[in-house]
């Protein structure tokens, strides 16, 4: 949406988001949000089922997110507007589903932003300890200042924000490659053979593999955020599919290499211990390598990955919140665009204290779980969405920027993997799962009985499509 702005000569000029992004920025947004999952969080899957369970979960989660990327690339290159999956749901399914999907997006990204800030605070404390600081460093100022700085960057413009993400994400990815190559040259000793025997292989059997799927999602959680750039890319039909598919390929490589180097160096018990174990596995692996260069480089990579993820999360959460405000699903006040910087500035500012509250008041594994659950609810919607999309508007009725192959197989696979992951989450965090589902039921009732009266149905359908088949 655009703001009404009185221009010179008495003409009313509309202010909208700027179309300034290319495929590289889409890649930086998707990979930037997710790559922190290689630097922290994925290792909780080791605690759930052992090192090999974490690898199996990594690949099955990779299949899940490949389906997500394929489906998103088709639908978003056709529904090219801010809000991503929220806007898709609005056009294809209906208002109640759209409202819920919008909330899934905002909570998934805001919780992920909080997790990134927690990790960054931990890194600062570790750097202080390595520098000889003997006291207990207060991480609070670093957590708060990180969120405030990145919110300010987002406030100032999307091009600078995602160009910054492009640079620091590339550095973080190169750091993983360098650590892997160092293992091939003998700089770091690996002990994968030890994983093949005794309790280290699959300590909890098949159920451990299923349980590991919970945190296996953390390798890739957020790649679907590329859709939030739909209204700000120069060529949605080209940039969105290319950036998203290149992003999932990058993450599949990074995830596998991360598992390889970390499980080869760190004991699986230390990797999977959520209380006294590793918070930043790649950084800990580099510390044990004996190389100061690797330790510094992976420390920088870890810091850059957390900043890139938090930066992208602010971008994506604010676009979803902005789109909902623009459509009156939330107060229209949130649908404003800054007249100079052309960003959804009110949505950016509003979400800052929420992220800070969770970053300071919740443990890391709980924050990660809330983000995963919100994302999982969103992924469950996507198979329904794409099946209805193909049924209402078959391939020969509207132009698509990308057509994902093998339909409806990716949708069916995605739905099955989501069902397995729900069970995996229930095994360890059943209370949180029930609480979050209950929360979304309550807000759905609020929307249905109160907020929906403010929504103008006639203004919802902005795509120039023919009448759906069968209607």
Automatic annotation (TrEMBL):
Lineage of the native species? Bacteria, Pseudomonadati, Pseudomonadota, Alphaproteobacteria, Hyphomicrobiales
Does Amino-acid biosynthesis count among this protein's keywords? no
Which protein is depicted?
Amino acid permease
Name the GO cellular-component terms. plasma membrane
Transmembrane: is it a keyword of this entry? yes
Q: Where in the cell is it found?
A: Cell membrane
For this UniProt record, the keywords arranged alphabetically read as follows:
Cell membrane, Membrane, Transmembrane, Transmembrane helix
List GO molecular-function terms, semicolon-separated: transmembrane transporter activity
> What stretches pass through the bilayer?
20-40, 52-71, 92-112, 139-155, 162-182, 202-221, 242-261, 293-314, 345-362, 368-388, 409-427, 433-450
What kind of membrane protein is this, topologically? Answer: Multi-pass membrane protein
Q: Which domain of life is it from?
A: Bacteria
